[in-house]
Amino acid sequence: MTADGVLAENLVRFRLARDFSQERLAEAASVGVDTVARIEQGTRRTSRPSTLRKLAEALDVSVDALLGNLPAPHSRDVDVAPLRRAITADASIPGLEDLADTRELLPLSELTETAHAAWRAYVDGRHTELLHALPVVLTDARRVVRDTRDDDRAGAYRVLSTAYRLGAGIAGRLGYDDLAYTSASRAIHAAAESDAPEVETAISLRYLAWTLVRQRRADDAERVATRAAAAIEPRMLDRDPVRAGVFGNLLFNAATAALRVGAASRAGDLLAAAHAAAIRSRGDTASEAAIFGPRVAALQNVELAARAGDPERALRLAEVIPEPTGDVPAFWEAGHCLLLAAAATELRRERRALAWLSEARDLAPDWVRYQPLGASTMGRLVDRATRRQGVKFAALATHYGVIAVESEPIP
After folding, report:
1. First vs last Cα of the chain: how many Å apart?
2. Cβ–Cβ contacts within 10 Å for residue 90, how many?
3. Region 127-137: what's the mean pLDDT?
4. pLDDT tens digits, residue range 377-402?
5. For residues 5 and 180, what is the distance between their CA atoms, to the nearest angstrom?
């Protein structure tokens, strides 16, 4: 598409997303309505920089966005430098040791509480809070590991493994997959020294498998996840919810990986095994170890159908999902809504798609902003719009980044 064609398309797109008529945009930008109309029709081949700037300001976007030069969505408004320093700190390398503001040695109980609060921010999708807290948790945990012995040291390694896993999770969410891999690897090494090495290692391997999927290493991810699941698999009469949850989550990862390489049947078998374990569990639970249970397993079945390219089946399965019998995190429910919105959009059920996009935003507003599926689904709905859709539509388009608001560059 030519540059003027991109401008014409984006001007229509952003105007509809803002719920502006051509007349209202012209008035807000202090340009003639014929100027707006001719640009949108593609009959005006050139535009003065001042005109582009006025239009961009009226639409609350950057000129680059208007011309099609959109920034990466996950790097608009976050600074990962402190997290990167905390994950890669290494006392064996001069100059890369921890540079903490305080040398206070936290009691293990307090360290555990701060790590749990960071995990809660992670599952709730509160990225700003997590990015602020996690470097401190990593530093504090490493200090306790270094300066204590015996049980406290093993407990601190468990917290350190948890913190590295959170580092892998947030780095992956923001698109820093190599940093996520580094953090997941360090989580595995810390888990081996913890007070629960078998379970903690299996949990950490789950994060590594997820990272491998993101790196498009699906074969590797499936091998890692299935072998870790085999090692942690609960016995038939074993009612330990932690082992069952870790086992089930590893099978979720393995199924996702299998689907990525086109093995839909194998993915279905893996999810069936996870579902059987979920039925034997005592309900839906969410902890640093795993998010698992009957509803969670059913949500995964919907995801499998959606990602396998069968939106009709995904929507049918969604109708019979059991009610939660415990704690299912908001971001997990929001991800389910995004999948349903994408399926409904595929079937041209725009009203239902918008309802699910709205529900996902309400459930986990910060988290959904970083999900490519939400942005792509909303983008398709905006592209299909042939007239103004109202302020609620405009608000959703803005939230999902269809309109990219200009911001300062991240150092």
Report:
1. 32
2. 13
3. 83
4. 999 999 898 888 888 898 899 889 88
5. 38
